[in-house]
Amino acid sequence: MNSENFTLSEKIVSPSYIRQGSQARRSHEQLIRHLLEQGKCPEEGWSESTIELFLNELAVMDSNNFLGNCGVGEREGRVASSLVARRHYRLIHGIGRSGDIAAIQPKAAGSSLLNKLTNSVVLDILKLAGVRSVASCFVVPMATGMSLTLCFLTLRHRRPKARYIIWPRIDQKSCFKAMITAGFEPVVVENVLEGDELRTDLEAVERKMEELGAENILCVHSTTSCFAPRVPDRLEELATLCAKYNIPHIVNNAYGVQSSKCMHLIQQGARVGRIDAFVQSLDKNFMVPVGGAIIAGFDESFIQEISKMYPGRASASPSLDVLITLLTLGASGYKKLLSERKEIYLFLAQELKSLASAHGERLLHTPHNPISLAMSLDGLQAESDKAVTQLGSMLFTRQVSGARVIPLGKEQTISGHTFRGFMSHSEAYPSPYLNAASAVGITREDVTLCIKRLDKCLKTLKKELNVAKSSSPAPPSSQEDTAGE
Predict the structure, then answer these.
(1) Is 280 among the annotated ligand-binding positions?
(2) 463 is in an annotated binding site
(3) What is the rounded distance in angstroms from the CA atom of residue 95 to the CA atom of residue 108?
(4) According to the UniProt record, where is the region Disordered (predicted)?
(5) How many CB atoms are closer than 10 A to CB 289?
(6) How close are the terminal C-alpha atoms of the chain, in Å?
């Protein structure tokens, strides 16, 4: 209620009680005012009642919620189900206009304000997470792969002769298909094995730049967050090469916001060389439903150019989800999650190392990967070619999700390109292994239960293999062979 309505209420209920209620209302409004003034994530999280009040205030600003509104167009924010309307807080119009996802909608001042505030709050979080000099960003209602495609399509207009994208190999289908879908030819650069780690082959990248010619290369498509034993690309060196040869640089930072190391690499790459845009997933970094990503960069005009490339209006759901989440957590709550993730990474590494040692395996040494870990499975491979993949099946049926078991020699063809040793980021990685990751939101209980079940699976599998070996017929001895002759 406004001040006039509070004054009128004093004629009905005791003025002292009304004034108390008015002060409570002002405390909510004070938080909202600070958000509107600063455009930053509040330091302390909001209560659900404040968030719902704020969203309801935004919703009544949209034309579909106007009292007495008469809509005669084809897009009037009509919703058949009241359940759907409540699920979206009656913010039905989405974001953007037909020509620009970042544009203001005349029919939807509330939804437009939601969109602008979300982008501003997310930009603040990217800075807080380590990329201090990021200039602009926007939330796009597509996951990481399609968001990368949007970046590539935008670069097409700047580099009409280009047909190649240089891509240090990362065995993840969506980032490869993002280049194919955009109509470009990926130039796959194999990684270099350094100890247990797979790292960027900078010499091979530069050779490809010289061989293909800068004008024929759309960009370098690098990666930060990845599954061990691959580690983040050498972003500083790649950014320096891109600046030297005047080639754009797009970074796949899928779940890198949660890692200060990944964010530092992006910050440093932009400082010493060239990074045009970096893309990150909403669900992986902020624990919201799948379906959104953040496209960010250091040149505001280029990021605006990407947003204008998006055709038509867009769903507001990813923006709404991440804004609610960040208002709930506050900057302090999100920083706490990031700190806990780091601590549990060390705990996971310690537990995996102990388990590996107990089973005659070892934790692969991948210090440059701050999120993912890998444990060798050489002993299983020696027992049986199928034992490694069988372990993966056993873990899945025992509700251990996210753990990846990587056998030797797997081949996979994607859009006509055959990857040897697929899933291992290398044509011939020397060891089969198991992955586990410490991602934002993980708990010590998750780790403890995973290690317990993994230990049990390994023991069961080895027992089954020993039984199978002992029950198979023994080969004839050399004396029997001679007698038979």
Answers:
(1) no
(2) yes
(3) 8
(4) 466-485
(5) 10
(6) 104
313 marked ligand binding residue: yes
Percentage of residues in the chain with pLDDT exceeding 70? 97
Residue with tokens 């055959």: 418
What DSSP state is assigned to residue 291? Answer: S
Strand partners, 189: 168
In 224-328, which ranges are E strands? 249-252, 277-281, 293-297
Residue type, 231: V
Report the C-alpha gap between 105 and 8 in whole angstroms. Answer: 35
Average pLDDT over residues 171-175: 94
pLDDT of residue 409: 86
- 105 is annotated as contributing to ligand binding: yes
Q: Would you say 271 is a known binding-site residue?
A: yes
Between strands 293-297 and 277-281, the pairing is antiparallel
Q: Answer yes or no: is 258 a known binding residue.
A: no
Q: What is the pLDDT of residue 32?
A: 96
- Separation between Cα atoms, residue 41 and residue 124, nearest integer Å: 7
Helix (H, G, I), strand (E, B) or coil at 402: coil
> 182, 201, 233, 188: which is closest to 369 by C-alpha?
233
pLDDT tens digits for 3-48? 888 887 878 988 888 888 888 889 999 999 999 999 999 999 999 9
Interval 251-278: pLDDT, tens: 999 999 999 999 999 999 999 999 999 9
> Is 398 annotated as ligand-binding?
yes
pTM strictly above 0.90: yes
Both tokens of 4, joined, read 């006039």
The verdict on whether residue 234 carries a ligand-binding annotation is no
